[in-house]
Amino acid sequence: MSLLLPIIFLLAATLIFVPLAKRYAANTVLGYLIAGLLLGSSVSGLIEDPQLINQLLHFGMIAVMFFVGFAFRPQQLWLERRGILKNSGLQLSIITPILIGVCFLLFNDVLTSLILGFALALSAVALPLQLLEKKQQLNNKLGQATLATLQFQAFVAVVLIVLFPLLEDTASTRHGIAYFAAIIATFSGLFLASRYLVRPAFRFLARKNSIHLIPVLSLLVLLSVILIMDILNIHMLISAFLGGLLLAETEFKSEVERILEPFKDAATGLFFLAIGLGLSLHPLIQTPLLIIASIFGLVVIKAAVVTAISYYQQRHAKLSTLFAITLAQSGELSFILLKLAESENLLTKDLLQPTLLIVFGSMLLTPLLYWLFDSKVLPKLQKQVAVQIDDVPQHPIFILGFGRFGQVIARALHAQGKQFSVIDSNQPDADFIEQYGHRFFDADVTQVENLRAAGIEYCKLLIVAIDDVEDSMNLARHLRLNYPDLTLFVRARDRHHAHLLNDLGVQHIWRETYASSLNMAQQALIETGLSVEDAHIQIERFKQEDEKLLMQQHWSHDQQDVLENYPSAIAELEYLFENTKTLRSDRLSNDQNTQSDANSLNETS
């Protein structure tokens, strides 16, 4: 019963604080940390059992390293090694000596300074990724740069864990060359086992229709790696990392990932709960100014270095600042290295607790800084830039929106030597087009002042390539009212969107997947026996009939009628199928009548 009560407290606190943190701080990590802190001895004292906390922490550290290994991409790291070393490597090589120097000035101890400097130089993993996912920026240049940096830092953390035994004062079997030779041999052996044992085993399960046994095989692989490492006296954190890496290197990674996904947040959350439970607020109470100054100092040092390096390489202020804020904190890798140093008697508890508070504080500060810059500072800067632009080139073509749709249009125009201007706020790395004589504005297309600042009065053809229906409608409405002579090409998401644009008087409308679907349909007709010419004729007929249907729906529809007749996309699709069949049967009967008339004439003659 004594163990059951703390578990209930942990679950209840998690259910309260994790959703709140996700809503207000855009991540779950801080929710777990705060829940653990409130339940620990420093606040409520509901959970004070050191043995339970250590067990939770041990399991949590293994879980974190396993998922770090599962997300690790050694091939990608090797392929992009030059760019990563030039960016991420340079960051660490500058930040780490600065932090080591500051720590040496404070503690006058080389070993302590080395441990603290390397640990604090590493950034969080889960927190930046959750922030970027919330802002839908994981796939743009900011997200990819962050992922590459975190991959490199994960590799550095693993190397540091391997090297930690060298720092111990006492003699150990892990001090000799044989220990490192065993690690290298184990790494090589595991990768060979992955290729010749693990992958064939997964393929065997797939061939035997036993996909449901993949979790069992995954667990077997992980436990086998841990057992081998334990026999060789290699740290269990390295075992967990390699176990995750081995499972990620199979062609069934997506299936394994689907199985692990429900447990990922809870398993890593357990680590942050344990860290929160073990946090002590006494250093903050005793020396509040020192702790707060250290938190801000850490964030400022890391942010300044990352901003300077990123801006020097990218020449993009917004991207560099967001990149720096995203990586300015320390995180789970720092917690792991610090806790490992304490367990190896390399760091005293009196020094560990203030450092853990500094890491925790830097993580608390990051979402706030990101929100302030993204929501408050950046809009004001964009307005100032919009007002100050006075050297706008007189490009006759504007493309609003530079996603996959707008990019194809831009490439085709560029191939013909046509100059154009692009406005988009979600593609900050697209400013390279200015090297080719075009113009790129990193601005919100829905803001009227940005259109004026970009020189819309010189525009002859404006292409609306954004995918948001509401923004597209508002933009089309504004352009039709204020620039009636402007030729307007608008991307429509679906038939209903096309109807709404027709209501505004927009004449040139392209449904976004229509052309590619027709091309594939034409090829399908060819594959089923039609000649190229006949397939082309049939597709052209279909296009004409579909346009007639679209216009019939447009002229006859009002909003209530649409809701009554087409309450869902499937209902409208059923209507289209029915009418397409009718048209096709009419055409076939007409063709048959024509053929019979021709036969009659031949017989008469």
From TrEMBL:
<keyword id="KW-0472">Membrane</keyword>
<keyword id="KW-0633">Potassium transport</keyword>
<feature type="transmembrane region" description="Helical">
    <location>
        <begin position="352"/>
        <end position="373"/>
    </location>
</feature>
<feature type="transmembrane region" description="Helical">
    <location>
        <begin position="176"/>
        <end position="198"/>
    </location>
</feature>
<dbReference type="InterPro" id="IPR003148">
    <property type="entry name" value="RCK_N"/>
</dbReference>
<feature type="transmembrane region" description="Helical">
    <location>
        <begin position="29"/>
        <end position="47"/>
    </location>
</feature>
<feature type="compositionally biased region" description="Polar residues">
    <location>
        <begin position="590"/>
        <end position="605"/>
    </location>
</feature>
<dbReference type="GO" id="GO:0015297">
    <property type="term" value="F:antiporter activity"/>
</dbReference>
<feature type="transmembrane region" description="Helical">
    <location>
        <begin position="113"/>
        <end position="132"/>
    </location>
</feature>
<protein>
    <recommendedName>
        <fullName>RCK N-terminal domain-containing protein</fullName>
    </recommendedName>
</protein>
<keyword id="KW-0812">Transmembrane</keyword>
<dbReference type="InterPro" id="IPR038770">
    <property type="entry name" value="Na+/solute_symporter_sf"/>
</dbReference>
<feature type="transmembrane region" description="Helical">
    <location>
        <begin position="144"/>
        <end position="164"/>
    </location>
</feature>
<keyword id="KW-0813">Transport</keyword>
<keyword id="KW-0406">Ion transport</keyword>
<dbReference type="InterPro" id="IPR006153">
    <property type="entry name" value="Cation/H_exchanger_TM"/>
</dbReference>
<keyword id="KW-1133">Transmembrane helix</keyword>
<feature type="transmembrane region" description="Helical">
    <location>
        <begin position="319"/>
        <end position="340"/>
    </location>
</feature>
<feature type="region of interest" description="Disordered">
    <location>
        <begin position="586"/>
        <end position="605"/>
    </location>
</feature>
<dbReference type="Pfam" id="PF02254">
    <property type="entry name" value="TrkA_N"/>
</dbReference>
<dbReference type="GO" id="GO:0006813">
    <property type="term" value="P:potassium ion transport"/>
</dbReference>
<keyword id="KW-0050">Antiport</keyword>
<dbReference type="GO" id="GO:0012505">
    <property type="term" value="C:endomembrane system"/>
</dbReference>
<feature type="transmembrane region" description="Helical">
    <location>
        <begin position="210"/>
        <end position="228"/>
    </location>
</feature>
<dbReference type="InterPro" id="IPR036291">
    <property type="entry name" value="NAD(P)-bd_dom_sf"/>
</dbReference>
<feature type="transmembrane region" description="Helical">
    <location>
        <begin position="84"/>
        <end position="107"/>
    </location>
</feature>
<feature type="transmembrane region" description="Helical">
    <location>
        <begin position="6"/>
        <end position="22"/>
    </location>
</feature>
<feature type="domain" description="RCK N-terminal">
    <location>
        <begin position="394"/>
        <end position="510"/>
    </location>
</feature>
<feature type="transmembrane region" description="Helical">
    <location>
        <begin position="291"/>
        <end position="312"/>
    </location>
</feature>
<feature type="transmembrane region" description="Helical">
    <location>
        <begin position="53"/>
        <end position="72"/>
    </location>
</feature>
<dbReference type="GO" id="GO:1902600">
    <property type="term" value="P:proton transmembrane transport"/>
</dbReference>
<dbReference type="Pfam" id="PF00999">
    <property type="entry name" value="Na_H_Exchanger"/>
</dbReference>
<dbReference type="GO" id="GO:0005886">
    <property type="term" value="C:plasma membrane"/>
</dbReference>
<keyword id="KW-0630">Potassium</keyword>
